[in-house]
Amino acid sequence: MKQASSVDPIALIQAQLDAYNARDTAAWLATYAPDARQYAYPDTLLAQGHAEMAARIQVRFAEPNLHARLNSRSVLATDSGHTVIDHETITRTFPEGPGELDFVAIYQVNQGLIQEARFISGPQRLFSE
Fold first, then answer.
1. How buried is residue 124: exposed, middle or buried, by Cβ count under 10 Å (0-12/13-18/19+)?
2. SS3 letters for the chain?
C-alpha cells in the first residue's frame, strides 16, 4: 500500500471492496487502521480493532455466494480526511436462504486508512427458487 499521506481514498475503498469480494481477510484488514471501529448506523458498535473485525468478517466470508456490487460511490474531503459513501447491493446466504440487500457504507478515511465505518442495511430480499 502507498504511503499514508498519498493514498487516494477512492482507491483505498475500492481495495477494501475488492478484498471483500475476494474473501481475503488480510487484504481487507490492511485497508483499516489497527484500532478502527465499525458501527451499525448510527452508533451501535459492531467491532473495534483488527482482531474483532477479523472474527466478524470471517463468518461472512464463509458464505458461498457472498458478493458486493457497487451501485454508486461519493467522496467528500473533510477537515480530518475524507468521507466515502458507498451504495452497494450485497448477495448473501441468509439463514432463510440466498438473497440480497441494499447496503450503505460510510467510511471515514484519515492517514490513508479507514478509521471508522458505519453501515446501513436495507431489508433482505430472498431469491425465488
1. middle
2. CCCHHHCCHHHHHHHHHHHHHHCCHHHHHCCEEEEEEEEECCCEEEEEHHHHHHHHHHHHHCCCCCEEEEEEEEEEEECCEEEEEEEEEEEEEECCEEEEEEEEEEEEEECCEEEEEEEEECCCEECCC
pLDDT at 7: 85
- Residue 129 in domain: no
Contact partners, residue 84, CB within 8 Å, separation at least 6: 9, 10, 12, 13, 73, 74, 75, 76, 106, 107, 109
* Residue 41's CATH number: 3.10.450.50
CA distance 24 to 80: 28
Q: How far apart are CA 25 and CA 46, in angstroms?
A: 17
Q: How many domains is the chain built from?
A: 1
pLDDT score for 127: 95
Q: Which residues of the chain have pLDDT under 50?
A: 1-4
Domain that includes residue 30, residue range = 4-123
